Amino acid sequence: MCGICGWVCRERQQPIDMEILKRMNGAIHHRGPDDEGYFRAPGVGLAMRRLSIIDLFSGAQPIYNEDRSAAIVFNGEIYNHRELRQELQARGHRYTTRTDTETILHAYEEWGEACPGKLNGMFAFAVWDSRQEKLFMARDRLGIKPLYFYADGERLVFASELKSILRQRDIPRIVDRKSLDTFLTFEYIPRSYSIFQDISKLLPAHYLVYQRGKLSIRPYWRLSYQASSDSEDELAERFVTLLRDAVKIRLMSDVPLGAFLSGGLDSSSIVALMSQTSERDVKTFSIGFEDKTYNELPYARRIAECFGTEHHEEFIKPNIVDLSEKLIRHLDEPFGDFSIFPTFLVSEMARRFVTVVLSGDGGDELFAGYDTYIAQRLARSYARLPRCLRQKFLAPLADLLPPTEKKKGLINRIKRFAEGARLPEELQHVRWMIFLQQAEKQRLYHPEFLQELDDFDPYEVMLEQFAACGSPDPLDQQQFVDIHTYLVDDILVKVDRMSMAVSLEARVPFLDYRFVEFAATVPSGMRLRGNTSKYLLKRAMRDLLPAEIIHRGKEGFSIPIKNWMKNELKPMMLDALSPSSLSDSGFFNPDTVQQMIQDHLQGRENHSHRLWALMVFQLWWRQVSNDS
């Protein structure tokens, strides 16, 4: 696991400033505190930070091919590298290390631009091919590892994190207004966009070629849905076989290894299969809350006891103000998901004992675990009610209900359902993943900001993914959208940045591409049966997990931030969202924001999502302004 960065100039005679390259690499020190490496040639500079996981003594990067005509820097893990190594050696390639990094380089030599399709793992890498004067970069199929780039016609600059690219001081830091609007809509920035107008993300399952100033980007893998005719028993058996193997190959490590354990179905499934396949004692890590409606520790303890893990747990009592600013800096761009807090804190705890953890992320997107899928089904029945009843009675009644301090609760669910049901039906389940609607933006956004957006539609990015799915089944479409947006740009960003902030590698067995392809063959009725989510997952794991874990409802990895905003976070909120602070950034109407604050503090509305997103942006804006 590493962080990578570098740049290639269109004109090869351009010198590479070593101080700038070191500055870029130093910005991602946390991603790899064990080692650093550099490659410099006319017009080319590559760098990496290494967190040693495999081949601790001979795996330093950059790594070169036999005649040193190609060099690679790599972030991630390749789980099938031993099998590929045997094949490549049989084809005449000579190895000098045991590391998976060298396998990627020889795979590039052997198969060229088709090499990413040979790899099973999480990866972002850059190969400089001096013979062809070509930079070749690729990102794994599901987007587990990040890769950003900037191209201006004279050079291409790349890095694992935005902060590294910004160490080149002449790169513009213009806020992309459309990305800001999209962030406030969904709480994250999806697809290839970033908060900066001129910096992009390489999409998952894509590779990039930069050769003599010309840039091209192409896909190498696509997820498609095709329902299997296998029986339920056969699918359940394949489920366990594939996931067990995905877990087993992710136990590959020369350093201590453990697992995140929330007590939910996904993480419990991973721990159960680890206990079957690991030759070492399994270590598990959990975070709890004093507020019982947010605390899942009893379920985590049940799993730890069931499988005899070496269990570690802590209650969250952080200095939330200092932690907020620290985490926003690690994220590089605005990101509104509250669960960064518990994710960071459980990562910080785990890092005291291990260097690698397995995580249960991905199960919800693959097997329909989110409430939004159920809400979409309920919305079909709701839409059959007379419009006048919905618009003049039910929706206004839901608005009048005061929010509660519970994590979810019936009242909070009713309010959230009514809020999403007002949105266009073509958005399907995404309606309940939207936190700032168009009418609210008219009051919140500064007139100049609204004018700059012109007729921009933030929903278009989701509608494009619905259309790209290629399946007529609504659930297929919804899960395709989540895999290509929410999973990669929210869930995986959160896990990557928060674990790497403490130099911890997180591996995600559910996102083994073979298992993802299998999940796309499971009929939708075996993913969501009636209102029972994750039907096949529960069916497959019923002989391995306790019944109370199989049948408990989904809670989500969240925090009581709506309550913290009334107490611990209140001074920070009032400062970040003060009229003077809002005037400095110039994007928002201070009067509207002050009304939102008062409504939240007095319990009339739960504006925690909107206020936190605004706070995140304002704090991020301060950090960028002070750093420029």
What does this structure look like?
This protein is an alpha+beta fold. The protein folds into 3 domains: 2-174 and 192-219, Glutamine Phosphoribosylpyrophosphate, subunit 1, domain 1; 232-368 and 494-551, Rossmann fold; 560-628, no CATH class. The protein is built from 27 helices and 17 strands. The strands form 3 sheets. Strands 2-3-1-9-8-10 form a 6-stranded antiparallel β-sheet.
Structural features:
single chain, 628 residues, Rossmann fold, 6-stranded antiparallel sheet, alpha+beta, Glutamine Phosphoribosylpyrophosphate, subunit 1, domain 1
Helices and strands in order, then pairings?
Blueprint: E1 2-9, H1 18-26, E2 35-41, E3 44-50, E4 63-64, E5 70-78, H2 81-90, H3 100-111, E6 121-129, E7 134-139, E8 148-151, E9 155-159, H4 162-165, H5 177-186, E10 199-201, E11 206-211, E12 214-219, H6 232-249, E13 257-260, H7 265-277, E14 283-288, H8 297-307, E15 310-315, H9 320-331, H10 340-351, E16 356-358, H11 363-367, H12 371-383, H13 387-400, H14 409-421, H15 438-444, H16 447-453, H17 460-468, H18 474-500, E17 505-507, H19 513-519, H20 524-527, H21 535-541, H22 547-551, H23 561-564, H24 570-576, H25 579-585, H26 590-601, H27 608-627
Parallel strand pairs: 13-14, 13-16, 14-15, 16-17
Antiparallel strand pairs: 1-3, 1-9, 2-3, 4-5, 5-6, 6-7, 7-11, 8-9, 8-10, 11-12
Helix pairs in contact: 2-3, 6-7, 6-19, 6-21, 7-8, 10-18, 13-14, 17-18
